[in-house]
Amino acid sequence: MATAAARDTTRSQAYDAPDGAADTAEYARAFDAAVAADERIEPRDWMPDAYRATLVRQIAQHAHSEIIGMQPEANWITRAPSLRRKAILMAKVQDEAGHGLYLYSAAETLGTSRDELLDKLHSGRQKYSSIFNYPTLTWADVGAIGWLVDGAAITNQVPLCRCSYGPYARAMVRICKEESFHQRQGYELLLALSKGTPEQHAMAQDAVDRWWWPSLMMFGPPDDESQHSAQSMAWKIKRHSNDELRQRFVDICVPQAESLGLTLPDPDLKWNEERGHYDFGPIDWTEFWEVLKGNGPCNEQRLTRRRRAHEEGAWVREAAAAHAAKHTNGQTVETGAARA
Amino acid sequence: MTTTPAKDTALTTAALALGDDALVLSHRLGEWAGHAPVLEEEVALANIALDLLGQARVLLSMVGDEDELAYLREERAFRNLQLVEQPNGDFAHTIARQLYFSTYQHLLHTELAAGDGPFAPLAAKAVKEVAYHRDHAEQWTLRLGDGTDESHTRMQRAVDALWRHTGEMFQPVEGLDADWTGLETAWLERITEVLRRATLTVPEGPRTGAWTAGAGRQGLHTEPFGRMLAEMQHLHRSHPGATW
Amino acid sequence: MTHTDWPLWEVFVRSRRGLSHTHAGSLHAPDAELALRNARDLYTRRGEGVSIWVVPSTAITASSPDEKDPFFEPAADKPYRHPTFYEIPEGVQHL
Questions:
Q1: Which residues constitute the domain of residue A241?
Q2: Chain C residues lying within 8 Å of A119, measured CB to CB
Q3: Residue B228: which CATH number?
Q4: Whole-prediction pTM
Q5: Which residues contact B23 (CB under 8 A, 6 or more apart)?
Q6: Does residue A220 lie within any of the structural domains?
Q7: CB-based burial label for A138 (10 Å; 0-12, 13-18, 19+)
Q8: Which one of A73, B51, B126, C86 is most buried, by most CB atoms within 10 A?
Q9: Given this model, what pLDDT does residue B139 score?
Q10: What is the ipTM of this complex?
Q11: Domain that holds residue B108
């Protein structure tokens, strides 16, 4: 019996070093069997170091993406052109903070604290989705992000609800439920613009032109160049390949664009009867790798702003911790709603 | 562009006073998105901003088109308190502004909800939201006031700085049936109690002055407000007649 | 940079009266009062709850996966605890 919380960092390391090779092999067999049987792996189960590391990397990157992703949209909260849109956008950006929280919690079950993860984000040792290194230049970008970026994210994320790691899968269930509002509001926003004045229509088209290709890049490099894919598939962290999901997304978007009255900026986009899918043009992977390396239009700006918010908030976090330390004689704990 | 208030002027005056307070403070809180000191507080501040925006939309819609009123009035036509338009400053300033305003709003809406005036239904709903806003502000005032030396200094500076904008809250507003003197007494009591518990000193400076007294309610605002409106209204005004 | 990592709390939400509190997730807060409020803002903003518990994560004592077999397997071979174990003649009602 362990008197530590399920996610206590010391406990979650406890199974990393079983006594002998025989034990490890036995643990590994149990782990493999569980994954093969589509059972969930839970925080205190033994798991291979590489599985843990892969999950921490992926969940952290996902969490970082949520909180960095607040910035391009928050950029328009103060300029939203109607009160209805303003309320929607505020609620959406708030959800992203919430999603970040769910995901950091999931990562913490693997024995890494949120502080550690934020440090890695702030120092550039962990990444976030490159899509957020593009700027939101007009109001229509808010719609394009909702429709395309959130749409791509949902395509990626729905399979993660069945991911082999329990806490991650559960966080994704909650997130996917909430995300569908994000995508719909984006689509509705673009539809209003597309059907609006010629200037509004042009604004919508321009946004779709700029966000289409970066959205396709969100699925990651092609399968034959993806360094983590094969192992993640075997562990059932990932369920479909990058190219599969990308194709699924394209197939979904083409008719949606038609209904919007907007075009997708790809002359090679056409239905392929034989494949039963849309063919699409080549993706500029040079751009992808450049943005990933830090040379996107907003990499510096996003990270600087995130770091500043964290640093400027330090005194607040310290104050609350100091206050708690002064007043932990049971009185504060008493107010819990356990008797409700 | 003028919006013709269809209903009687007292109702309009009152709805704009309450509605503009909520609209402007919601906007200021919205500026925190992505900047909050901790993720949990991003969610909390956004909740408060959304409550206020909801109140503003109901109130403005009582006397006109919400978007016309929000986006097409000039600075001098806004009837909000100067307190709510004050820039966010550091987290302590935001909390001090929240403390002063939500305490006032809670007392006022409690009174309006008990009456049978046109604002009673809105006030009945708002009073629950605002009770939470006040609680949030008080919790943080206690932690910042009685936290570290730095947080104490910052919180004291914030309550001092905003003190001069608190007198105008109790200038009677036409169309609002309230016991303004009673509200002010209750407000002072509550604020004094919270500041005391937070080991802070109740500011001594004037709460009203020749310039600040009731000025926001008469359409006289502070310089940062014009820039706030410029940002808020720019896109809407750039596309006259467009729907969004 | 200073580290003042607030402690972790587990959040349990009662979604409506008549149901028990279930684990909703976790969050960080400096103390119990703010933990409750953070939980309200984070886990019930779409009307998901009518009551919340917060518990410091460190206060939870968990069974260990290593002890899974001794803990839980002995319960697996006692089918006589379940009503389906018993055969009742057809036609007998209210049993």
A1: 31-316
A2: 1
A3: 1.20.1260.10
A4: 0.91
A5: A83, B52, B53, B56, B60, B70, B80
A6: yes
A7: buried
A8: B126
A9: 98
A10: 0.95
A11: 10-238
